[in-house]
Amino acid sequence: RMEIMQSGGGSVQAGGSVSVSCRAPGFTIQACAMDWYRQAPGKEREWVASYDPAGVTRYADSVKGRFTVSADRGKDTIVLRGSSVEPEDTAMYYCKTRGAGPGQVGCDAWGPGSRVTVSS
Prior knowledge:
Blueprint: E1 5-8, E2 10-13, E3 18-23, E4 32-39, E5 46-51, E6 57-59, E7 67-72, E8 77-82, E9 91-99, E10 109-110, E11 114-119
Parallel strand pairs: 2-11
Antiparallel strand pairs: 1-3, 3-8, 4-5, 4-9, 5-6, 7-8, 9-10, 9-11
């Protein structure tokens, strides 16, 4: 069963940068994919970005050009980095692993969440 260790986040001023890391042992060898979500206070959880085993990344329009996903496959670690952050980026950020192909099992897990607070 996959488990995720999540770290990073914190408080940052608008215009600054913040990173959240997710380490999931077995992520690389099982060729899993990872999605990032966030949930702001009083709002529904929204999708932020995705990373697939081929290294292809996708981003929500709200973060495109400001957020990037990078991977250290040797360490089974995926990092979401936000630059030029805005108060609207304040949220709890979650990573989620999943199978990249139909019927793929063994990848599903949620990280515990990392809080990001952006002050103006």
